[in-house]
């Protein structure tokens, strides 16, 4: 696709760079300086707008929205009922400690 600078369009249309730059911004084109480029279609729309002064009815292209998929973490659950019924007491090992009688001095 060919691209044309705004300053070249201004020379051909007989208008100043500043005027065409301002009109391009009014039309919603992404331009910042006179050496910014436009497509041939955009240049045609800009020239028509600069000469006639009527904004064309341009259909804006709708970009599809990006859809993000969020997966939830899966929780692993006990598969058997025995594991589910197992109490924390079964895991604890207890030891009996013998008390020594106190020695009196």
Overall description:
By secondary structure, this protein is mainly α. It has a domain at 3-52. The chain contains 4 helices and 2 strands, in the order βααβαα. The protein has helices at 6-13, 17-26, 40-52, 81-85; strands at 3-5, 37-39. α2 packs across α3. The longest helix has 13 residues, at 40-52.
Short structural description:
This protein is mainly alpha-helical. The chain has helices at residues 6-13, 17-26, 40-52, 81-85; strands spanning 3-5, 37-39.
Span from first to last CA?
A: 107 Å
Task: Report on the biggest sheet.
Answer: 2 strands, antiparallel
Strand order in space, largest sheet:
1-2
Radius of gyration: 39 Å
The averaged pLDDT comes out at 77
Oligomer: single chain
Percentage of β-strand residues:
5-15%
Q: How do the SSEs run, as a string of H and E?
A: EHHEHH
- The helical percent reads 25-40%
Q: What is the molecular shape?
A: rod-shaped
Helix/strand/pairing class, anyone?
mainly alpha
pLDDT < 50 runs, ≥5 residues:
none
What is the count of β-strands?
2
By DSSP (H or I, 4+ residues per run), the number of helices equals 4
What is the topology?
Elements: E1 3-5, H1 6-13, H2 17-26, E2 37-39, H3 40-52, H4 81-85
Antiparallel strand pairs: 1-2
Helix pairs in contact: 2-3
């Amino acid at each position: 696709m060919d691209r044309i600078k705004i300053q070249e369009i201004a020379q051909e249309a007989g208008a100043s760079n500043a005027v065409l730059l301002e009109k391009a911004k009014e039309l919603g084109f992404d331009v910042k300086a006179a050496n910014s480029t436009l497509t041939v279609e955009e240049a045609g729309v800009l020239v028509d707008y600069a000469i006639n002064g009527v904004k064309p009815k341009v259909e804006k292209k709708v970009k599809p929205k990006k859809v993000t998929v969020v997966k939830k973490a899966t929780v692993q659950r006990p598969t058997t009922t025995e594991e589910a019924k197992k109490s924390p007491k079964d895991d604890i090992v207890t030891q009996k400690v013998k008390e020594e009688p106190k020695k009196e001095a």
